[in-house]
Specification:
This protein has 359 residues and is an alpha+beta fold. Helices cover 40% and strands 19% of the residues. Helix 9 (282-306) crosses helix 10 and helix 10 packs across helix 11 (327-347). The radius of gyration is 23 Å and the shape is elongated.
Length: 359
């Protein structure tokens, strides 16, 4: 991008990295809302180059965790989340719609977990981030979109790690399970209690955790267990299958791990403004989502750089990212705020003199 576009890009990062989760272009202190809108919707800068750069850093980061000996386990968690919206979005076509009683943008995300590291997924195509948008009836289903995400998982990862794919009931389809097994991965996914076995029984009729069963439509056995979840002060039973032989308690423990992605969704939305897109074009929406996810990664890498052993405070990490990577944007924002409140401070008897010293 040009120097002006570079400044606008840095201003957008500064806006998102405020860590409040309510960032919109009108809140930006260093660039106008119209400048940000032009940058996202009109300017011809390469979104693909940005994705390629971030992707190479993520792959290097993950491969650096590889040690000699047995292959470590890479958890690939699939889930669908809704970026809720109200009002009309005719300019976005069928992107914003109602699904599961929620109106908004419905995205399927691939999320990688390696030990203590948690990273939004990436694509092998270099052209797009690893998420897909569900467009409703008559278009590819969530499980079909998830299959495309898995097919684009970089080969460097599938060759160097044991892949465990975790997902909820929508991803427990025959085609997706077969596809995971075909690529030497293991599926640990939720299934409906009404799924039928080859002997005619329902899944809900199985009473022993870890029992080997044959689902109707599958040519190989899977292993069944279940977990109990609290919903509205009640306990609800959720069934989980594994294509890898495991004890019932082990399957249940792995099944619960898929909820790790919920923490990512909350952080991405309410710290890095993933859901605050308000652009007039599909390109603008896509670019906003990409920049929000990149901001999340920058904050996470700063957290790793600081070697903080205590619990991860995303607001603190976002602020430290601004200080370390974009100090000039932070200073400009502070100066603009001072400019606004200076008359009021003068009325209260305060006076400020800002002088830059050469050291």
């Amino acid at each position: 991008p040009t120097s002006y576009q570079q400044e606008t890009l840095e201003s957008i990062f500064g806006l998102i990295l405020c860590g409040q989760g309510n960032s919109v272009p009108d809140h930006c202190q260093t660039k106008s809302a119209s400048a940000i809108s032009r940058f996202l919707n009109n300017y011809q800068w390469s979104t693909r180059s940005l994705i390629r750069t971030v992707r190479s850093l993520i792959v290097k980061f993950i491969l650096d965790q590889r040690k000699r000996g047995r292959k470590p386990t890479l958890q690939v968690i699939l889930d669908l989340t809704t970026l809720e919206k109200v009002g009309k979005f005719t300019h976005l076509g069928n992107l914003v719609r109602v699904y599961n009683h929620k109106k908004g943008l419905h995205i399927i995300v691939m999320y990688l977990v390696l030990g203590n590291w948690r990273i939004p997924g990436l694509s092998a195509t270099l052209r797009e981030w690893s998420f897909r948008i569900y467009r409703g009836k008559g278009t590819p289903s969530p499980s079909q979109l998830a299959q495309k995400l898995l097919n684009n998982l970089p080969k460097k990862l599938t060759q160097n790690f044991k892949i465990y794919v975790l997902g909820y009931t929508a991803f427990g389809t025959i085609k997706l399970i077969n596809n995971i097994r075909k690529h030497s991965g293991h599926a640990i996914v939720g299934i409906s209690k009404n799924r039928t076995l080859t002997d005619g029984r329902k899944v809900s009729e199985i009473k022993n955790r870890g029992q080997q069963v044959y689902l109707k439509g599958l040519d190989f056995p899977v292993f069944l267990s279940w977990v109990w979840l609290k919903r509205d002060c009640k306990k609800i039973q959720r069934f989980v299958i594994s294509t890898k032989p495991m004890k019932g308690t082990t399957i249940a423990r792995w099944g619960k791990r898929r909820w790790q992605i919920e923490g990512f969704f909350k952080t991405a939305k309410y710290r890095f403004s993933l859901h605050r897109f308000g652009q007039k074009t599909r390109l603008g929406v896509y670019r906003w989502l990409i920049l929000s996810l990149v901001s999340y990664l920058l904050a996470y890498w700063v957290y790793l750089h600081l070697c903080k052993s205590d619990s991860l405070d995303w607001f603190y990490c976002a602020q430290q990212t601004l200080i370390l990577l974009l100090p000039h944007v932070l200073l400009l924002s502070i100066f603009n705020q001072l400019d606004t409140i200076m008359p009021w401070l003068h009325e209260l008897g305060f006076d400020f003199c800002l002088i830059r010293c050469k050291i």
